[in-house]
Amino acid sequence: MVDNEGDYLLYKDPRKPLNIRIRDLMSRMTLAEKIGQMTQLDRRILTPKIMKDYGIGSVLSGGGSVPKPEATAREWVDMVNEFQKGALSTRLGIPMIYGIDAVHGHNNVYKATVFPHNVGLGATRDPELVKRIGAATALEVRATGIQYVFAPCIAVCRDPRWGRCYESYSEDPEIVKQMTEIIPGLQGDHPPRKAGIPYVAGKEKVAACAKHFVGDGGTTKGINENNTVTDWHTLLSIHMPGYYQSIIKGVSTVMVSYSSWNGVKMHAHHNLVTNFLKDTLKFRGFVISDWQGIDKITSPPHANYTHSVLTGVQAGIDMIMVPLNHTEFIDILTSLVNNNYIPLCRIDDAVRRILRVKFTMGLFENPLADYRLVKHLGSQAHRDLAREAVRKSLVLLKNGANADEPVLPLPKKATRILVAGSHANNLGYQCGGWTITWQGVEGNNVTLGTTILDAVTATVDPSTEVVYSENPTTEFMESNKFSYAIVVVGELPYAETAGDNLNLTIPEQGITTMNNVCGSIKCVVVLISGRPLVVQPHLSNIDSLVAAWLPGTQGQGVADVLFGDYEFTGKLSRTWFKTVDQLPMNVGDSHYDPLFPFGFGLTTTATKFQDQIASR
């Protein structure tokens, strides 16, 4: 609480009220120190010296930005602490906050638990489960020394052609509202009577980020970063409800969307960011840009960076995810303030909000991480939780020709069974995008987990022969006598714009596998995808169809339900269309004519309960 000269520093005294500490610190800050707090840079271009020289307020790891491949939790802690020591060595010793995209668990980190993506969690209809996932994610993030996550995504995806649809819990704003319960999981339960004020409950919790404000899931044809064309009422009733709940629950930060609303870029939207989010909704945390978000105010991006900085900061963005060229941003923003284009009161508003979050989190008292939590990374308890989430997320779309002849649950004891398909033995495909890298990965040597093939093998009776063939031919099928087949196919991993898709068909290889196998034998198709795909042409050939979404590392959860150890309970959180020509089509639309309606999901009876009944 004292400086090097022995003078008392009020802002470092945890006994003093929050606002007094903020006011005292800001009274000591130069313009350069304030602008440093507004700057967020990727670790790839950073050194502790840059942290010190520019007083950088925040660091991030973009997708795949890691200390080294397969870095351990301890190596993450060491790296974060080195950057923090740079921040603490500045004149005022303001700690930095480190952010990362932990969007389905701590997904950038080797051996972390990877939970189902949000589209699957929406199908669970279980906010309490999602809260527990938030708490587990917070522990794993803190295990690596990181204090801030760019999650949850509370987009309301209204068109599955959007490449980020799997990051959305549902097309229904009511389900998205319910799933904001992940925020108290990440941050801790918000104290009563403090709505709108950021809250993080200590060293085992993280600051959360509601994103992307606002309307990111409503763009025309689902084109990423495009234009959402709606009236004010629709924006408020469809895309805004998740933000009301997030703010009530004390979310620390809000990230602005790349997209536009009625032609105006959200990163430039003063009316929505300042007048509505900050002034009307009384949000007291800080607003952060997306990656190079202000650059994209112009077309082409970065064409007039001075205009972008001016417009973005004046719109009300408090922290800028620059994230690669700090000198350009800092020099331009400094010049804009010194030449009276941006008033100092706007800078002070941004810094006050950033410091409020840092003080609330206890960063000034506990800026450095230790190894105390490293045991939580990928812990068995978290893997068990992820397995439970997988079980509850699966949606059974078809189960035999009629209710009297169900195919599922499958018998564990059979002479010989076939497991086939591109996604049956591929952990990377099973996890989807935003896993280890931004776009996702393929193969089984990418992180720790259980493939669906391994799960099936571990579940069936020891006497059952399990044969695996990724792409069996019709000749192969004819020359083998299988009791039944499990075919696991779906989308290849993608993230953001790379996932925009106007046809939404199952990849050709998957269709061939389904045709070869399901034309010969009783088959269950498990579809791994971030959204509904075109299945109507194949449905008559399939005995049973399961939507497994993007289940993450714990494939055992799929086998748990296929073989009847647990019941199918998942319900569609998205409408399953017949053809893409119907899109966009959401529940409540006048032209609503789905293949499987919103809320659909068949159930089964767990065989272990049947066994218990039979043994009585």
Biggest sheet overview: 6 strands, mixed
**What would the average pLDDT be, to the nearest integer?**
96
DSSP helical segment count: 21
Question: How large is the radius of gyration?
Answer: 25 Å
Structural class: alpha/beta
Distance between the termini: 69 Å
Helix amount: 25-40%
Strand order within the widest beta sheet: 12-17-16-15-13-14
Instruction: Enumerate the spans where pLDDT stays under 50 for 5 or more consecutive residues.
Output: 609-616
Q: What does the overall shape look like?
A: globular
Taken as a percent bin, the fraction of beta residues is 5-15%
Overall number of strands: 17
Explain what this protein looks like in three dimensions:
It is a single chain. By secondary structure, the protein is an alpha/beta fold. It is 34% helix and 11% strand. The protein has 21 helices and 17 strands. The chain has helices at residues 18-28, 31-37, 48-54, 73-88, 118-124, 127-143, 173-179, 182-187, 232-239, 241-248, 270-280, 305-315, 326-338, 344-361, 380-393, 427-431, 452-459, 474-479, 508-518, 556-562, 607-615; strands at 39-42, 58-61, 97-100, 148-149, 209-213, 227-228, 253-256, 260-261, 264-265, 286-288, 320-321, 395-399, 416-420, 465-469, 484-490, 523-528, 544-549. The protein has a six-stranded mixed β-sheet with strand order 12-17-16-15-13-14, sandwiched between helices. A five-stranded parallel β-sheet has the order 4-3-2-1-11. Strands 5-7-10 form a three-stranded parallel β-sheet. The longest helix has 18 residues, at 344-361. The relative contact order is 0.12. The model is unreliable at 609-616 (pLDDT under 50).
